[in-house]
User: Which sequence fits this backbone?
């Protein structure tokens, strides 16, 4: 079963506007972690933000915030005041435990394009 | 501080050839991962290792083997390369119990099998 679902293959946003990238997840664990990574065209994976399943507050890192809705199993990334440099692939990921080992699984990604 | 180092960065193989992708991390992490990235498919987990001496299959393990040589190194071997294994391969490491929960990635290996 797919554990991380990103339903938006591509998104467009105007510079300086906010954008929300969707992510839903599936796990039966009580303890898990959710991540967002950015992959620019150069190919490296850049960590953006983390939310633990027991964290009561939504995580924020600068212009990035994670809208964590535990009951809905969603962990959407909100980017405020978009910049041209935000154009990239964005991946949602989850760490949970399977067979006694922690593993990290990713969604298929969303390609964000910021228009001037 | 090098982080996660992958070698090689680029490789072209002929069908049927074998090769090993090397990965080493200097952050004393227990968990290490190998992913492949294909267009439209995101990062798919091939194998992972929760600690030295242990390895587990991920989503797409067929055609690959791994070795967790020690805590620092986690290698991925293609015994008989196939064109379907043309992809970008990423190694990553993490230590969930530490203050920084994120996984750190290598720069990737672009593999082409002809």
Assistant:
């Amino acid at each position: 079963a797919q554990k991380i679902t990103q339903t938006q293959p591509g998104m467009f946003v105007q510079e300086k506007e906010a954008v929300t990238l969707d992510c839903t997840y599936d796990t039966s664990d009580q303890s898990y972690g959710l991540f967002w990574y950015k992959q620019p065209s150069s190919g490296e994976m850049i960590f953006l933000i983390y939310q633990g399943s027991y964290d009561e507050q939504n995580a924020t890192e600068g212009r990035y915030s994670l809208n964590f809705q535990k009951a809905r199993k969603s962990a959407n990334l909100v980017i405020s005041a978009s910049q041209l440099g935000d154009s990239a692939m964005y991946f949602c990921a989850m760490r949970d435990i399977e067979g006694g080992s922690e593993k990290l699984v990713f969604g298929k990604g969303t390609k964000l394009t910021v228009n001037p | 501080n090098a982080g996660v180092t992958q070698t090689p960065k680029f490789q072209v193989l002929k069908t049927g050839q074998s090769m090993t992708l090397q990965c080493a991390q200097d952050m004393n992490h227990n968990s290490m991962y190998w992913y492949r990235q294909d267009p439209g498919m995101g990062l798919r987990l091939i194998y992972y290792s929760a600690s030295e001496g242990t390895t587990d299959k991920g989503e797409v393990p067929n055609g690959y083997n791994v070795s967790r040589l020690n805590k620092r190194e986690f290698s991925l071997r293609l015994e008989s390369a196939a064109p379907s294994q043309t992809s970008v391969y990423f190694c990553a490491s993490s230590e969930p119990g530490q203050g920084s929960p994120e996984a750190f990635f290598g720069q990737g290996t672009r593999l082409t099998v002809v």
Notes: The CA atoms of residues 3 and 45 of chain B lie 20 Å apart. The interface with chain A takes residues 31, 33, 35, 40-45, 48, 50, 54, 56, 58-59, 88, 90, 92, 94, 96, 101-105, 107-108 of chain B (CB under 8 Å).
